[in-house]
Amino acid sequence: MTETVPILKHPMAKYIREDRQPWIYCSGCSIGIVSQMLARAIDNLGIDFHKVVVVSGIGCTGRTSGYFKTGTYHTTHGRAIAFAEGVKIANPELEVIVVSGDGDIAAIGGNHLIHACRRNIDITVICINNMNYGMTGGQFGPTTEHEKISQTSPGPIGNLEHPFNLVQLTASSGATFVARWTAVQARRATKSIEKGINKKGFSFIEIVGACPTAYGRMNRLGDGVQMHQHLIDVAEIQNGLEPHLAEIDYDNRIVCGEFVEIEKPEYTAVLRAAQEKFKKK
Amino acid sequence: MPERVMFTMGDIACAEGALSAGCRYFGGYPITPATEIAEWMALRMPELGGAYVQYEDEIASITSVIGASWTGTKSMTATSGPGVSLMLEAIGLAVMTETPLVLVNIMRGGPSTGQPTRGQQGDVMQPKWGSHGDYQIIALTPASVQEMFDQTVKAFNLAERYRTPVFILADETVGHMREKLVIPDGKDLNLVYRKLPTVDPSEYLPFKPDEDLVPPMALLGSEYQFYATGLTHDEQGYPSDKEKVQIDLITRLNDKIIKNSDKIIDIEKFMLDDADIAVIAYGTPSRSARKAIKDAREEGIKAGMLRFKTVWPFPEKEVQELAAEVKHIIVAEQNLGQLYYMVKAEAAPTPVHLMTKPAGMPQLPHEILSKIKEVKSL
Predict the structure, then answer these.
(1) Are A79 and B230 in contact (CB under 8 A)?
(2) In A, which residues are within 8 Å of B27 by CB distance?
(3) What is the mean pLDDT of residues B248-270?
(4) Phi-psi region of A32 (alpha: psi -120 to 50; beta: other; left: phi over 0)
(5) ipTM of the complex
(6) Which residue of A has its CA nearest to B48?
(7) pLDDT at position A273 over 80
(8) Mean per-residue pLDDT over chain B, rounded
């Protein structure tokens, strides 16, 4: 006789499309951790989940939206922020969250990122930075460090280019909330996601993660556990540091924390005020 | 709002048409010769409770329009050829996720930067074949200021009815000409709104079509949860790499347009009853053709015109019927010949003659008349 063991549900399962399990992610990938951060942030805030919209672009992280059990949309490559802006402006009551990767957000979608910061639309962007294009097998991207190895930056030199520092980029572009954490700082990162969602303005949260299958393998960084251990070792928390000092040097030092929290008129609020002025006329 | 009369340009008539149709979101980027649409929207949207948003490029503009549409807001963008070229990938996304929207192309000279201030009809194949993969599209070709209004209202109705992007293809001359515009009382307009789901949220399949092949559309922020993706997806909306899912999906997306062609295609027959020679034209050249045909009739030549008010889906049956009744067909397009090839395929064996004008000034009436005479003498 076989014994029946009740299956314990994950406490965040209510936010997740269980019929889409298992995740497509490789073992050791950080994206699952970040998905849980987002679910927990939503849970902690107690917001109406129907009013939450999750949008992503293309790539491994681009698949995130499809796992959330609410209104979700998977855009073309790089355009998640542009889609999210349309949603938020057309219906400011919605809580619009973009989750996408470094390539999607900062390379092909880089122009939309900086302009959304400048425009200051109340959306929250979570960018999982695994320092390469994982879905296509590990090519260098806009955040790959100089001389790092990838499928398109082979030895002996490695990457000829230099990376963006996404904290500096978004801070100087006008984002009203900017934070960076690594995938192992789950509680702190979750708090920052909550703050980002609550912030009436453009919020950007970078989560430095691990891609052991592609980037880690090519740069001999070990398996998923080793790569996440490394993130613990090099993460240095400096909340409130001037964003231009928020260094990211993968081997030695990843400065984490909340670096920007400023007040600025938010786009949809200003638009609403303009509409109201006409009503009174 | 009661009926209004304006003396205005095509671009502004188009914007007013959109507003009358209930459009409350415009995402755009300035470009000649479509800028007046954006400017008019910037002026008018806030007072109607809507939004004019100026993006960093056309890619963001169209993608934001897709986003806005998924909240249930009727949405549009307007641009010209270079902008459409940038938007094409997103057009595929809108087709694949069955997103109602209107995209206006005020056609200028091309390729590339071309002649921004001069009209042309060089982009008529672009909506149908520009985005990758197999798909159908709807495209309307207004020929007057009043039609810029009327057809924009119609474009929204078709977009909502069939859950699809709809193009307005107007040449620059139509966009910038000034004529009388009558804006009907709002209650006299028949406006269509997309079907919303009525089933229990637990039973909702986001891409399960009704009998008309169009699925009801849940909105972001509603009680329905769904995943919409540009990936090939099953009725539940989930990605699939199965052959059957791909075939079923793209066949349905094609069929929902093609099988409704009779309801979408709009043509005008001008003096065709006893015609031997038919001119096929759309947009500004059709205005010249009308005068040329009257002049030809005065000279005893039995000429007529088949004017396309919609070019996609292509009026195959209408061209076949025409070809069976006339001896010659002349296609007068402001390009080097684009729909000509479509007409030729459908009209065979009736001879089809091309009259091109790949530049700003459309074929003039006397030039079309000369062509009619030339064909008559064959």
Answers:
(1) no
(2) 86
(3) 98
(4) alpha
(5) 0.97
(6) A275
(7) yes
(8) 97
Q: Which two tokens stand for residue B225?
A: 């949860």
- Chain-chain contact of B56 with A112 (C-beta, under 8 angstroms): yes
Q: B60 and chain A: CB distance < 8 Å anywhere?
A: yes
In this predicted structure, what is the pLDDT of residue B1?
77
As a whole number of angstroms, the distance between CA A193 and CA A44 comes to: 11
* Fold match flag (B4-188 vs B268-376): yes
CA atoms of A130 and A105, how far apart (whole Å): 12
pLDDT in tens, A263-272: 999 999 999 9
Q: Using CB atoms and an 8 Å cut-off, which of residues 227-266 of chain A contact chain B?
A: none
A20 at interface of B, judged by CB pairs closer than 8 A: yes
Give the SS3 label for residue B228: strand
In the 8-state DSSP scheme, what is residue A107? I
The domain defined by B4-188 carries CATH number 3.50.50.60: no
Contact B47 A76 (CB under 8 A): no
- CATH superfamily name and code, A26-280: Thiamin diphosphate (ThDP)-binding fold, Pyr/PP domains (3.40.50.970)
So what CATH class is B268-376?
A: alpha beta
Q: Which residue of A has its CA nearest to B63?
A: A83
Query: Helix, strand, or coil here: A108?
Result: helix
Task: Give the pLDDT mean for B37-56.
Answer: 98
CB atoms within 10 A of CB A101: 33
Q: Kindly identify which residue of chain B lies nearest to residue A88, measuring between CA atoms.
A: B68
Name the closest residue on chain A to residue B46, using Cα atoms: A275
Q: Which pLDDT score is estimated for A1?
A: 63
The answer to whether residue A53 neighbours chain B at the CB level (below 8 Å) is yes
User: Angle, nearest 10°, between helix axes B145-162 and B10-20?
Assistant: 40
The answer, yes or no, to whether residue B25 has pLDDT greater than 80, is yes
Nearest residue to A79 (alpha-carbon basis) of B61, B7, B313, B302: B61
Give the residue from B227, B240, B241 with the most A CB atoms within 10 Å of its CB, the best one to mutate.
B227
Q: Which residues pair with B267 in a beta bridge?
A: B308
* Domain-wise residue ranges, chain A: 26-280
